[in-house]
Amino acid sequence: MTTKAIEKNKEAVSSLKIFGDLLNGYAARSIGYLASTSAAKAVLTRLDARIYKELMSKEQYPKKVQEEKYFMGRNLILTILKSLENAKGSPNVQKALVKAVKNVFLDRKSRVAKFEEKFGHKPPAFLVIGPGKFCNLSCEGCYANSSATNSEKLEWDVLDRIMEEKEELWGSYFTVITGGEPLLYKSQGKTLLDLAKKHSGQFFLMFTNGTMIDKAMAKKLQEVGNITPAISVEGFEKETDARRGEGTHKKIIEAMANLREVGVPFGISLTATHNNAELVGGEKLYDYYFGKHGAVYAWIFQLMPIGRADSLGLMVDANQRVKLYRSTQKLAKEKEMFIADFWNNGCLSDGCISAGRPGGYLYIEWNGNVTPCVFNPYSPVNINDIYENKKNLNNVLDEPFFEAIRQWQKDYALDRKPSEMGNWLLPCPIKDHYSDMRKLIDKYKPNPIDEASEQALLDDNYKIGLEKYDREVATASDPIWEKEYLGK
Asked: Contact 273/315 with Cβ under 8 angstroms?
């Protein structure tokens, strides 16, 4: 699309349409053409202005909420464009990125409309799937409690059917893969790479420890094209090896070099704890991984005390959480980095996205248990049972436990006036509002998915400790929400 055409249609053309035309240009022309011409720069300038205008004109949520979406939306676009540029020698990767934007963003509205017309509500946007629990590492505080002794897994035919149904029923083309270590998954002679090849319209974000990505594996990922690895680090070498094992960081750096060489876009995944919170929020860390080693995005997970995290003391405390919020906000705005914190960035997703919320997700783990999210390990239903009873993913959404969580999301903020919304800097029902979630767990009695999650329900100190934590983070965070977001 030319600058003249954009000017002619600037009031009618949406930001997604402009971005779609830009990506079509990538597919049709050389990367260098759009990276260097004034036409491309004009398109990007117009796109940036259009996104800001669209978001800030909406009155459903506070203005600062919309402004944060603008910054992260801008950064996501820059991340995609940078990934396309880095993949100029990898046509399979380029094609997969363009297809992902088309399937995940550009064409989603029409698919959602069909679902909503039939069922009266919108479908989830994606699934998080842990196909296997097996892992070659054993990290302190692992939410999945994974290790080399765990062999539980979803069989291939079940995993394959899940992928088919999420696409056919929900129009969902984005899938997050976690573990265990996903690259060690194997069932009925199939691997994760076979899954990506078969479902080539899907785009996969794969959380991995990175130790399996040698040159041969990087080449396979390049050939498949539609997988982006998010490699787990805890900081620099010292912090990463302390939690993940000596020599792990060296393998991670080698993996990043291998991925850069073949043009596969990758990012980093960080678990923020009481011990490394200041480091995780520091500019030097991101300059190191983004600038020196080529990462293009970062996901931050504040440790949730499940799995092997038997001590609440590992959590980021209230003051650390506020500092982490301030520092990552600054990096997103000033350095244009795509850095998302699943707790501190609740505004980006309109709060909690668990329990199959419209635009949100559900989590399916290796034994088939379906839970509200990765960090809420209580399941009212098992996907294997669903399929044995000749039902499908839509029946999973109907579970009362999930419906109750979705109602909590509405009552907390989604159905309230902007000036009366609950604090989206504390979006998480299982971590930030544990007493509310505990009432739902006690009422609907979902099954704990493992021994650790069962023990959490039996341990009074766990409940007392989390509720104390919630009061502390509310005391630190509520004044920020009320003053800066609600204008009180």
From this structure: yes
Q: How many whole angstroms separate alpha carbon 265 and alpha carbon 197? A: 17
Instruction: Return d(Cα 410, Cα 388) in angstroms, integer.
Output: 33
**Helix (H/G/I), strand (E/B), else coil: 462:** helix
Report the amino acid identity of residue 174.
F
* Residue 81 C-alpha from the chain's centroid: 19
Please name the residue that has the structure tokens 């909503």: 116
DSSP 8-state symbol, 481: I
Q: What is the DSSP letter of 356?
A: T
Written as six digits, the tokens of 445 are 């009695």
- Per-residue tens of pLDDT for the chain, all 488 residues: 334 433 444 433 456 666 666 666 554 444 443 444 455 556 667 778 888 888 888 889 999 999 999 999 889 988 988 898 899 899 999 999 989 988 998 888 888 999 999 999 999 999 999 999 888 676 665 655 555 556 789 999 999 999 999 999 999 999 999 988 999 999 999 999 999 999 999 999 999 999 999 999 999 999 999 999 999 999 899 988 887 888 899 999 999 999 999 999 999 999 999 999 999 999 999 999 999 999 999 999 999 987 544 678 889 999 999 999 999 999 999 999 999 998 999 999 999 999 999 999 999 999 999 999 999 999 999 999 999 999 999 999 999 999 999 999 999 999 999 999 999 999 999 999 999 999 999 999 999 999 889 999 999 989 999 999 999 999 999 999 999 999 98
Q: 440: closest CA among 355, 360, 357, 383?
A: 355
Contact criterion met (CB below 8 Å) for 355 and 418:
no
Residue type at 39? A
Residue 158 tokens read as 């079940």
Q: Does the model's pTM come out above 0.85?
A: yes
